[in-house]
Amino acid sequence: MPSQKGLEHSEPPPKVDLTRLSLVASTSRNMIMILGDAGAIQWVNPSFRNFTGFLLTDIIGTRPSKLLGGSGTDPNTLRRIARQLHRAEQYEEEILLYTSTGHPFWVHVYGVPIGKEQGVAPGFIVIMNNISDHKHSERGLLIAASVFDRSHEAIIITDQNNRIIDVNPSFSRITGYSRSDVLGLNPSILSSGRHSPAYYRSMWKTIEEKGFWRGEIWNRRKNGEEYVELQTISRIHLEEPGSYYHVANFTDITELKNHAKDIERAANYDHLTGLPNLQLLKERLHQAQIHADTHETSLSVGYVDLDGFQAINANFGTDAGDKILRVLAGRFAQRLRSGDTVARIGGDEFGLILQSENHEAIYDRILSTITEPIDLGNDLGSVTVSASLGITRYPSDSADAEGLIRHADQAVYMAKDKGRNLLHVFDPELNEHRRQKRAQLIELSRALDNREFELYFQPQVRIEDCKVIGFEALIRWNHPHKGLLYPDTFLPSLEGSHLEVPLGQWVLEEAVYQMGLWHAAGEDLSVSINISPRHLMDRSFALYLESFLNSHPAIKPGQITLEVLESTSLEDIKRASDVLARCQALGFRAALDDFGTGFSSLSYISTLPIDLVKIEKSFVINMLKDSSDRAIVESVIFMGQRFNHPILAEGVESMEHARALRDLGCEYMQGYGVSRPMQANCVPEWVRQWRENHSDPSGPARTSDSGW
Ligand code: C2E
Ligand code: CA
After folding, report:
1. Terminus of the chain with fewer CB atoms < 10 Å: N or C?
2. Which CATH number does the domain housing residue 421 bear?
3. At what angle do helices 655-664 and 627-642 cross, to 10 degrees?
4. Is the pLDDT at 699 greater than 90, yes or no?
5. pLDDT digits (tens, 9 = 90+) for 629-650
6. Is residue 571 part of a domain?
7. Cis ω before 395 (30° cut-off from 0)
8. Is there a domain that residue 524 lies in?
9. pLDDT-based confidence at 684, cuts 50/70/90?
10. Who contacts 215 (Cβ-Cβ below 8 Å, separation ≥6)?
11. What separation in Å is there between the alpha carbon of 532 and the centre of ligand 2?
12. What residues are neighbours of ligand 2 (ion), with CB under 5 Å?
């Protein structure tokens, strides 16, 4: 601002009342100071006092710069003012000053020298105008402008007709278009053509309704490259009604998207083969199940496990192992059809989901493609690998995705059991059966601990004179909730399990214990116990019997018959003979149970060292009305006689049966016709009654230990 030398008047001032003039200074809203010629305060008006808080009496003689200057006051401005004061020249500045309480305020300062020319003592009149508000809005605009210029987001401002009226430097950086390239144009020049007109229509509809829209848009840079931006478009209404403009700001998220894709890849794909991993296989399987449900189609899950892959890694190194996995992954992917999935789900394990038709053929192809030679390169030559394949089918296997994969995995184990390079299909029914069997085994084990088993006893009688020759021990389970259970409901679960031997041992001990109680009650009775084939063939069976006898010296082994089932487990007939012979050497007797039901009856009866043959009850029960059953009974009796084995007929339900059997030459009988199996404590009384009713000629209670 150019300075002027004092107040220059071309005309003399009109005559005005001085008091009235001083009133102007006193009532002005501007802050007014009168300074002396040395620049010190001589007078201030009430506005100055009110605004700054300084009282004239306190500040008189002070320089304004000392009084009002502060940390934010520009020293250059102060210096300029001081120079003008010194030269007694007019000045005009904008400056930041402080009130008595330290509050900053902006003023426009206008200082005019006065003196002789006006007929007054030399000095200055200083008029200060508060311009804080103006300064603030000026600063706001400055900040807004710098935000526009420096923002990392691109900003486009368009008018009501959507013509670009301004863009910021980031817009140019992202799109490659300069400001002058685009001014006056429609932002659609950026369009990539990827979005449908409907997409843009819905975008504008949202802007109309809500005043803004936010979303992702694929656009094209000036150089033709496509990019994706996250954009917000806001409609800004101006003061005049109905007029507005648009501000769109966006960031380029192409890299972010690529990064997200990388993350997704890492989470869902195997880095070695590029195939989906277990996680993604499960997700796809879940989707495939939903698809199969809605379209009533089926799918299958395959689990491929390479045979002996450890050895390949060990022999050729892990690089070669990796190569094999990559080659196989490529071959699998080639063999599948669209909609099918192959995934790498473990070190040398792959999972398959087949939705297309004709699964068998594809699985066969998969197995055979694995066995094609793989060239390892260099000096390693080529190798051939094979795999085992487990398969399960949905919906016949109704498990969820994880269950299906687990079942296919279980089927792999079955395939591996059968050999290499084979497939096995999971059988859900068999699995359910196994599951139930497992659950029952747990229950059986608990029952054994809780002493829930009980032996019932069924008499065995000589037909000729009705003499009681012994009792067969038959197991029962007093189930806490289901009541009395018969052996056919629980023995099958026990078969082949770790509980088979312990239960067999319990039966022997319990039978011997009951024999002791009967003995004490005056009845010396023989007992037959059923020995399961596996228990009999258990390596330590004879040893166990021997130590049992040693620990129970009162027992007469001749009173115990071991009933052995004709069964496939006895196929090793030589070993079965040896075991039975050892048992007999210890003094036990042996009976061949349920004779006639097996296929090797003749070889058993001719080879095994046995003391008794029991005819299976079903033949006996029906022998009176079914001639072929009668024929079987006849031939068993005949064979027994030929091989010198006494015969006991089970299932003798009536005296008629007994007579028919006697006529055929059968010596012993057992069945409901004599008695149903009974609890142990009923046995002595039953024996007495029986003897009374049949006037046993042998007198007092005795069952011979060589009854047959
Ligand atoms: P099993 O050795 O053939 O036993 C004879 C079965 O026939 C018994 O059934 C008995 O109750 C039944 N029975 C006896 N007389 C008649 C009759 O006149 N008519 C009919 N319809 N049935 C008759 P239970 O007690 O249910 O035993 C079934 C099978 O369970 C036994 O067949 C035996 O193989 C096995 N078992 C029973 N107890 C034991 C045991 O302690 N250990 C082992 N390993 N197996 C046992
Ligand atoms: Ca039996």
Report:
1. N
2. 3.30.70.270
3. 50
4. no
5. 999 999 989 988 888 999 999 9
6. yes
7. yes
8. yes
9. very high
10. 203, 230, 231
11. 10
12. 530, 563, 593
